Structure formats: C-alpha cells, structure tokens
Amino acid sequence: MNLKQQTPSQTIGPYFAYGLTPIQYGYNFRSWVDNKMSEDANAINIYGKVYDGEGQTINDAMIELWQNDGKNQLFGRYGTGTEENNQFSFTTLKPNSVNKQAPFINVIIFMRGQLLHSYTRIYFSDEDVLNEKDSILQSVSKERRQTLIANKTEKGYEFNIHMQGPDETVFFQI
Amino acid sequence: MSKLINNHFDMDIHPPYQATEYKSTILRASSKPLVITKKTLSELSGPVFNDFKLGVLDHDLTKNAIIDGEPIGERIVVQGKVTNELGQPISNTLLEVWQANAAGRYVHKVDQHNAPLDPNFLGTGRCMTDTHGNYKFYTIKPGAYPWGNHQNAWRPNHIHFSLFGGDISSRLITQMYFPGDPLLEYDPIYNAIPKRGKELLISSFDLSVTEPDFALGYRFDIVLRGHIATPFKNK
Asked: Which part of the chain is the Intradiol ring-cleavage dioxygenases domain (chain B) (predicted)?
C-alpha cells in the first residue's frame, strides 16, 4: 500500500495569538473557542504554568484541552500570555472514568521553540483509587507519574508543565 | 488494513524536538523519550465542526479587516486538498491561517520589526474543507522579516497553518513556504525538517489556480497523520 507522506510540522511561532486566540489577547477577530469549556454549575477550574529548562515561566505557549468520556466531548484553547505570571486556566467538567481507567483530559502544547507539538494528560489527585489501577499511569515510572497528576487546591486543580529538567512532564506519543 | 499503518509521527519527515540551530528549542524541547500509549476513546476523537459557522469573510484575508481601503501587496489565492495518509479526503475540518503582511510585519503586539503595519490587513483567517477535502483562501503574499535567532537571520515568506483532522493525533500546525525562496536554505526552522520532508512544505505556483486579473494561485496539499476517513461522530 502506498501511503502518502505526512505533512511536516513547524513551530506555532511567537505570533499566533491574533489568529488562534484573538479575543483572549484583545484582537478584533472572532474566536471560535476559548477556555470556558463548560458553564455547568459543577464545572471545575484547572490552572497552571509552563516552565522552560531554566525554570522560567513561558509566556507564549498555547494549550489545548480535549476530553471525551463518552458523555461529554469538550475542547478548549488558551494562551499563556495574558494572565499574571503567565498562567493558563480552563473551566471544564471533570471527566468520568471510562472502562474503569482513571479520568483524564488530553493536553496538546504548542510554543515557539517547539517544532512539533507535545501531548500529555491531566489526571486528578483526588482519584487515588482509580489512579493506582490505571494502566497508562502505571506504565510510567513512579517518580515521573506525579507530573501527570493535577493537585486539588482551594482554587481548583493545579497542573504545571515542565518542558525539561528533573521535573520534566511525561509527554506521550499517541 | 489498519495494522499496516504506522500511525505515529513519521520522524523521517517531521522535525525533531531538539534542533539547536533554532535556538528557542534549547530550553523548550522535551528531552526524555515519549511514552507510547494505546489510544483510548479520547484519543480516537477530537473537536468536530459540523455546527461551526464561519464568518462570510473569514476565508478572505484581503477583505476581512478592511477599514478604509484595500490591503497593500500581491494578492494570492491558496488552494489545496487535505487528506489522510491513505489519500482519503478529510472533509469539514477547520483550517486556521495567520501570517505577516506584505512588508513582513505581524499585527501581534510583540512583533517589533520596524516595517509598516497595514491598517487594512489583519493577517488571519480560516476556512473549512469541503466534502472532497478541498480548501481555498485569499490573502496577500507575506513578506520576509528579520528575527533574533542569529546574526542577519531572516524568515522566508510563509503562512502559518493550523489543522485538526479526525482526531487529536491528526492535529497539525505547520508553515507553508513559497517556491524558489532564497531564504529557505538559511532558515533553521525549515532546515530542522529531515531531507525527505522538506519539499512537502513548499507550495507550488499553479496557473490553473491563478484567477485572471485578480490573484496569483498557489497549491498546497496537506496530509494529516492517520487513516480515519470520516471524523469520529461524537454527538
């Protein structure tokens, strides 16, 4: 079978905001998606920062969340360039467990300096029982597993992404 | 059939995460091996756009930001087909594009290049593929611009593209280049692509796409990773 060659990836670059997240950054162009993935009363807040190899927060990353637990299909997108301390934040529904696996949200990360985007997952610190039995979480070494688990705080769930270093986030090939 | 397909990124075609000639990768590229997962329901799906209503001028960057006149520069029309690796068309998927103006200046507030902004050109737009996977948009040919990567560094003319396809593994952000651009050989972002992949990002001039007395035509076909012909329906 002759397969066509995949079109190569290139970086999102530093200037994506007026095209991909225009309303968030104050440009006069309609956004079709933002960080408010749910307006449900039970919606949760997920927030965090993206750190480079020197531990500096990255102010020009774009984060996309996608979740599908069979009941809810939700997509969100947000840049790290408008909130204090280069934070990202999303309002969404906590996903349900599928096939007895721990609930999670897919994360896609883009930034200047990334020629190819990265995939990771957000799991939840208050799902210990399911996390302990989750086949994908358990396939990751115990030391690194923590990088995939958002910590429940007073404000919601905190999920920081480290591109490099001792705390480098686990990124997936999917 | 599906077992014949390598559904991962083809790293003989995609640029690596670490490409030190492109200096921003040094502190931002992940360094540990990726963890391979089998796909679950969430990875086998992605946002669908059946209900998404484009603005009437979203696909025409020469008109979607007019204030008091036509944008300056060479009008072009860019057309192509979006398929999966089997060559099957990917219909009803969203393409988002953004670019510099004809003088090589981005509207983005961070861009400090000393070239004029064009009050009638925003430089962003979007369109959907039709049932045959075809897309088309109108714009102004973007200019080259200097950047701080190294002494006398210039980006070749390019248009940024963002696409979704059928599931989140087919997600792609890339850049379309123009044929014969002398800056390509000096560009570390373009040159990070392995040899086999490089030609795939260069659009071709196409007289049959060119609109008489109006705009030069360029063709740029896109192949998204995977082999799901129809986007997963999740509603």
From this structure: 78-106
